[in-house]
TrEMBL record, chain A:
Gene: purQ
UniProt KW keywords: ATP-binding, Cytoplasm, Glutamine amidotransferase, Hydrolase, Ligase, Nucleotide-binding, Purine biosynthesis
Protein name (database record): Phosphoribosylformylglycinamidine synthase subunit PurQ
Domain of life of the source: Bacteria
Pathway(s) annotated for this protein in UniProt: Purine metabolism; IMP biosynthesis via de novo pathway; 5-amino-1-(5-phospho-D-ribosyl)imidazole from N(2)-formyl-N(1)-(5-phospho-D-ribosyl)glycinamide: step 1/2
Automatic annotation (TrEMBL), chain B:
The gene coding this protein: purS
Gene Ontology terms for molecular function: ATP binding; phosphoribosylformylglycinamidine synthase activity
Protein name: Phosphoribosylformylglycinamidine synthase subunit PurS
Summary of the function given for this chain in its UniProt record: Part of the phosphoribosylformylglycinamidine synthase complex involved in the purines biosynthetic pathway. Catalyzes the ATP-dependent conversion of formylglycinamide ribonucleotide (FGAR) and glutamine to yield formylglycinamidine ribonucleotide (FGAM) and glutamate. The FGAM synthase complex is composed of three subunits. PurQ produces an ammonia molecule by converting glutamine to glutamate. PurL transfers the ammonia molecule to FGAR to form FGAM in an ATP-dependent manner.
Pfam families recorded: PurS
Length: 223, 76
């Protein structure tokens, strides 16, 4: 049976189609498309993806409004049951605002929007989403964000590092993130938030395919 | 009743916006500015019987992000 995935679209999401295409390309099955105002998720989901974009125009704080939308109550509940959740860019911001991941994403330290392909180090290759990489492997994934500066207090950062919950790190300082963190996992390991866009590095025409292994690993284990 | 919620970045949290404003003030010739922090002011019109606990709940659940921000509620 194919992968039963859902891509959530908020008003202002703009990478939802890219995410859906990447999931379909790798899994062979088109994901379900879910609107933020829906109160319930479809049954028996294998994977939920929160895409990049500028939900609600980044009003108040990036991801803050989307985190209060009806569908997010269902996403939080599903994540609690162990359903895998991938949040990319704005999706990562929504996951932190919804309390599914620790920390917050602040304005880039240099104040500028950063849009380029950056090298990342895979810090943990034992999670559902990172099992297609090896620990310490360097991959190249595009970033495109204004608010990607990961912040958490020192105790939280130490805990994340100690528990292997830093999934990806920027090889070179990118946006001012504490300890150059680019992606983090929740305690159970089924929720990954990351600022870089793996869905933009899936096909040869993208200029790189290093993101493909993330989807392949998850799909191999889930479908 | 009008309520003002003042939201500010916690001390120690880098404020690149504040730093840019600081530089701009210096560029305009204002000397002696030691630091600039940019916050947010949210004005609410609420029912008169709205309790402190409810206002606090609004701040914690949406208006401020407790990871990086402090807030202060002022009844006007």
């Amino acid at each position: 049976m194919g992968l039963r995935a859902a891509v959530i679209t908020f008003p202002g999401s703009n990478c939802d189609r890219d995410m859906a295409v990447a999931l379909e390309q790798v899994s062979g099955t088109a994901p379900l498309r879910i609107w933020h105002g829906d109160a319930a998720l479809p049954d028996r989901l294998d994977l939920i993806a929160l895409p990049g974009g500028f939900s609600y125009g980044d009003y108040l704080r990036s991801g803050a409004m989307a985190a209060t939308s009806p569908i997010m109550r269902a996403v939080v509940e599903a994540a609690g049951r162990g359903v895998p959740v991938l949040g990319v860019c704005n999706g990562f911001q929504v996951l932190t605002e919804a309390g599914l991941l620790p920390g917050a994403l602040l304005r880039n330290a240099g104040q500028t929007f950063i849009c380029r392909t950056v090298p990342l180090t895979v810090e943990n290759s034992r999670s559902l989403f990172t099992a297609g990489y090896s620990t310490g492997q360097q991959i190249r994934i595009p970033v495109a964000h204004h608010d990607g500066n990961y912040f958490a207090d020192e105790d939280t950062l130490d805990r994340l590092e100690g528990e292997g919950r830093v999934a990806f790190r920027y090889v070179q300082t990118c946006n001012g993130s504490q300890r150059d963190i680019a992606g983090v996992l929740n305690e159970a390991g089924n929720v990954l938030g990351m600022m870089p866009h793996p869905e933009r590095a899936v096909e040869d025409d993208h200029g790189g395919t290093d993101g493909r292994a993330l989807f392949e690993a998850a799909i191999r284990q889930l479908a | 009743m009008k309520v003002r919620v003042h939201v500010s970045l916690k001390p120690g949290v880098l404020d690149p916006q504040g730093r840019a404003v600081h530089h701009a003030l210096e560029g305009l010739g204002f000397t002696g500015v030691q630091d600039v922090r940019v916050g947010r002011l949210i004005e609410l019109e609420v029912a008169d019987d709205t309790t402190d606990a409810t206002l606090d709940d609004m701040c914690r659940r949406l208006l401020a992000n407790g990871v990086v921000e402090n807030y202060r509620v002022e009844r006007v």
